[in-house]
Amino acid sequence: MKWLTFVWPRSLRARLLWLVLGSVLLAQALTLYAIALHQHSQAQTAAVNLLVTSIRTLQAAIETVEPGGRAQWVEQVSQGQWRLLTQDLPGQARFQSDRGLESRTADDPGLRRSLRMLAREVNRSLSRDARVAVTAGEQPYLYVSIPRAQQDAKAVGEMSAPRASRADRARSGRSRASVDWLQIPLDRVDPPLTQATLIGWLASLGALLLVAAWFSWHITRPMTALLRATEGLAAGHPEPVKPSGPVETRRLGEGFNAMLASLAQAENTQRTLLAGLPHDLKGPLSRMSLRIEMTDDPELKAGLKRDLDDMQRMVEQFLAYIRGQDTGSLALAPLRLDTWLDDQVQDRQRLRQQVNVSGSLEPVNVMADTDALDRVLANLIDNAFEHGRPPVEISLHKQGQWVTLSVQDHGEGIEPADRQRALEPFARLDQARTRTGNAGLGLNVVQSIVIAHGGRVVLETGNKGGLRVDVTLPVAR
Prior knowledge:
Layout: H1 2-7, H2 12-62, H3 70-77, E1 83-85, E2 94-95, H4 113-125, E3 132-135, E4 141-147, H5 150-160, H6 166-177, E5 179-185, H7 195-234, H8 247-293, H9 298-325, E6 333-336, H10 337-350, E7 355-357, E8 365-368, H11 370-387, E9 392-399, E10 402-408, H12 419-422, H13 442-452, E11 456-461, E12 467-474
Parallel strand pairs: 7-9
Antiparallel strand pairs: 1-5, 2-3, 3-4, 4-5, 6-8, 9-10, 10-12, 11-12
Helix pairs in contact: 2-4, 2-7, 7-8, 8-9, 9-13, 11-13
C-alpha cells in the first residue's frame, strides 16, 4: 500500500530522517504545550496581578490630580505607554459580559482566546464599579473605566448633550459622560504570534531537518557502500570498502573486507590446484597414449583409447575453466558481432557440423575480447552437440542497448528447476548428460566470461524443444 510506504518508508535513510523529524516535532509540540500551560497558570496570572495592581494604584492616585491634567499625568507616570481617553471607546471595543453591557467578548471571533481570558481576569479582579473592554487587531488594547471628577463629568455631559440623540443618551450616557477610559496596550502583556516568530520557528525546524538529513546520510553512507560492494561481489567484481561511520558499520566494513580476502585466497588456492593438475596429468596421459598404441589387443586398445580421450577432454575443460576465471586479463576492443558470428558458423560448417544461422544477422557492435568470446561460442556449440541433438541454431537479436546471442539445440533440454544449478562449476546433470568425460565446467566458463563483459546468461526452452542458451551483451556506444 502506497500510503503505508509514505508513513513508514522502506529505506533506512528515510526511516532515520522520518524518526528524527518526528521526534523533533513531538518534542516541540510538547514544549509548546508545556509553555502554554505555564503561561496560563503562572505567567498570565502574574501578569494579570501586576496589571491589576498597577490599575488600582493609578485609580487611587489619579483622584489627587486636577481633572485637566489627568491625561498628561497618566502618560507621564506610564512613560508614554498608557493613555487616558476622554472620548468614546472605539467601535471594535468589546465589553465583558458579566458587567451587563451591550457587547460581549465571546461574541467576537476576532478576539484571541488569551485576550478574552485576560479581560475576564482583570474584570474579575477589579471593583464592581469598574468596566473593562478589549479590542483586537495588530495592536490590542485593554480599556478600564476611570470615574471622572463631578464637575468635569457635568461639563462633558453638557457639551455632548446637544449632539447626541435621545437613544444614544439612553444607551451610553453613563459610559460617555461619567467615566474616562484608561487605554493599556497589550502587546507586552499578551504578545501575539508574530510573523517573525513564525519564520524563526520554521527556520529552526528547517535547520533541524538539515541536521537530521546529514545525520541519516552519515549513518547510512557506509551501509550504502557496503550494499554496492555486495552487489559487485555477486556480479563477479569484488571490491573492498572503506570502513567508516560508527563503530558498528566500521566493524561491518572490516569484516566484509576480511571476507573478500578469504575468498580471494581460497580462489587463488583453487586456481593453483586446478592449473597444476592438468599440466601434471599431461605427461602421464602422453605416456599412456604411447603405450596404448603399442598394445596388440584391438579390443583392449579401443577401450583404453576411449578412456584416455575422456581424460584428455576433462583436462581441456579444466584448462578452459582456468582461462575463463581469469577475467582480469581480458582485452576488450570493438567487435562487429554479426560478422564475427558469421565467420564462426562458416568454420563449423566446413567441419561438416550442422550449425545454422536462424534469421538475419543485424549489424551490431560490442566491446569484447575476441578470444574469450570464441571460447564462449565454442563451449555452447560443443555442449549442444554433446548433450543435445543437431542441428544447432544460432540467432542474433538486438533490443535497445542490448544484443542477445542465442544457441539452441534439439535435445531434451534441462528442467527449469535445474537450470540455475547447471551454471554452477562442476555441476553434473544426469538428465542433460549422455556421455562421460565431462567435468561440468562448460556453462560456468561461459557465464564467467559473459559476466566479465557486463552481460548475463539465461537458460530457456527452445521454440522447438531442447535447450536455448541466451547470452546478452551490452551494445557498444
